[in-house]
Amino acid sequence: MKNKSFNKWTEFYLKSDFKSSNQLYPSENLIRMLKGNYIKNLNKDYRGKKVLDIGFGSGNNLFFLNQLEMELYGTEVSDEICKEYVNKLKKYNIDVTLRKGFNFKLPFNNVFFDYLISWNVIHYENSESKMKKAIKEYSRVMKKNGRIFISTTGPNNSILRGAKLIDNHLYQIKRKDNFRENEIYFYFDNEYYINKFFQDDFKEIQIARTTTNLFSEINDWFLITALKK
């Protein structure tokens, strides 16, 4: 992949300390979605179900998914990250299959997963056609009525501060303090477009939004869950 940020992510995860707090604690929003009473018609019996964590990063969500007794799979942007984290997770007696893969190219068979998690990953596509391809790929690997859980950047997120609008939903990052600077990503401008892009492949789409103002930074996220048609 010719993507500078992917190289930066590889460098970051290979150098990071596995004992650091960001690697031990899962996303609070993901815990709420999977364990809380926020989602209509959610089956909370996760034992033995196959789950794919796209862009597993530091593996923090895999710890939580393992506690739910799920069968764990994940992808990241390089073989180096996958190899490193398979070995690290083994130290915690966590068995996981990790492979190099991307939103639009997942190295798994059709109709394989019961659940799919894409946490702050899908917006790395830099065109409408690639976003549509990524959603189709998510659908391809899911069983019928399998459920997706997605977090993606909202329009007020600080990463978009000063960003240049290139085309519909496409923004060029202009944060000089961020290694994504000058790269182009896809961000949903509102809930209407989330429904528009997902409705061909998924049903019972439910959308939430969480925004926090943390002093100088705003964290703004769309949370999405839906069932494979």
What does this structure look like?
- This protein is an alpha/beta fold and about 230 residues long.
- Helix content is about 30%, strand content about 30%.
- The chain is built from 7 helices and 10 strands.
- Strands 3-2-1-4-5-10-9 form a 7-stranded mixed β-sheet, with helices on both faces.
- The protein is globular and about 45 Å long.
- It starts with a helix and ends with a strand.
Give a brief rundown of this model.
With 229 residues, the chain is an alpha/beta fold. It has seven helices and ten strands.
Report the sheet-strand fraction. 25-35%
How many alpha or pi helices? 7
Helix content: 25-40%
* N-to-C span: 30 Å
Structural class of the helices, strands and pairings? alpha/beta
| Largest β-sheet summary | 7 strands, mixed
Provide tags for this entry:
alpha/beta, seven-stranded mixed β-sheet, three-stranded antiparallel β-sheet, 229 residues
